[in-house]
Amino acid sequence: MTASFPRAEVVIDLEALRHNVTLLAERAPGADLMAVVKADAYGHGALPVARAAIEAGATWLGTCSLSEALDLRHGGVTTRLLSWLDVPTADFAAGIEADVDLAASSVDELRRIADAAGQVGKQARVHLKIDTGLSRNGCPPAEWPALVEAAAAEPRVDVVAIWSHLACADEPGHPSVDAQAKRFSEAYDIARAAGLEPMRHIANSAAVLTRPDLHFDLVRTGIAMYGLNPVPQQENLRPVMSFRSTVALTKRLPAGESVSYGHTWTAERDTTLALVPVGYGDGVPRSLSGRMDVWLGGRRRPVAGRVCMDQLMVDCGADAPAVGEEVVLFGAGEAGAPTAREWADKLGTIDYEIVTSMYRPRVRRRYLGGPA
């Protein structure tokens, strides 16, 4: 009897995630490790991922928004937690009450955090962010002395750290990495001169793997934790997410007949088509039409014709897969199955975008190696 598989699911291997966290912690033995779980843990599920990362040795968690951080607190997570980017109307008081560390990139933002701390009668833990060259969030170097002086004089905040983010750490040897490191060192000296004694963190996943001189007190592991390698050299990382569906129907198609919208694909021979009930409504990019394979029946098979909103067709040749048979759209790549990196390369994007976009209403999420 053929096993039954759902219409669409992402399978999250928490044991693979634990392996990756352990590997990354071993690469930065003198630093604490922050597991970055923003954007619902890059589409993997923030709460299960956070728990598994902590089990594997993560001592900090990182989110983008305060609401993400508070969701973790409401889920029972008590580990140190940094939230670093929000709108001006964010309820910093709720974050301070929940023991969430907050980031400040300007004197105005620092004052709003301090005012919130005053409202709740509790000192806010703050990480001051210096823009060292990414030119996104972060305090411009010209304004940095004013920020650290204001922070040093503000009794309602405890300056835990200064931090920054690297632009090109995934390109080892890129001159910007050393340039940013130099600016970060200068910013640290200014903070110390103002009377602060902060910890430092600047290393992302790529820098964890390639720049031990930038590990400092804390490293922030994002994409590598999910088993997707951000650097050119081979690393023993295990992809955590796979995307699967099932065969809903098969049919024989005579030579000369065409498939799907626009009739962009025509059978050159009699063949068997397998209908898979996932499409761009479930995270399969329409732009992969005509250039993607799936793993079905122990081998790669091409998708025939355009990807539709709810379905796609697979050319199976002389084979006749069973209705209900599993289809892997991307996974860890064992035995040659497609991967998220393969999708990204074909689309001219990065694998971060592929996995993060898999959080969709019709796609079920299933966990291995931990609680569902």
UniProtKB/TrEMBL annotation:
Its cofactor is pyridoxal 5'-phosphate. PROSITE patterns: ALANINE_RACEMASE. It comes from the Bacteria. It holds the Pfam family Ala_racemase_C. The active site is at residues 38, 261. InterPro entries: Ala_racemase (IPR000821), Ala_racemase/Decarboxylase_C (IPR009006), Ala_racemase_C (IPR011079), Ala_racemase_N (IPR001608), Ala_racemase_pyridoxalP-BS (IPR020622), PLP-binding_barrel (IPR029066). GO terms for molecular function: alanine racemase activity; pyridoxal phosphate binding. CDD domains: PLPDE_III_AR (cd00430). SUPFAM superfamilies: Alanine racemase C-terminal domain-like, PLP-binding barrel. Substrate binds at residues 136, 309. This is Alanine racemase. It comes from Amycolatopsis saalfeldensis.
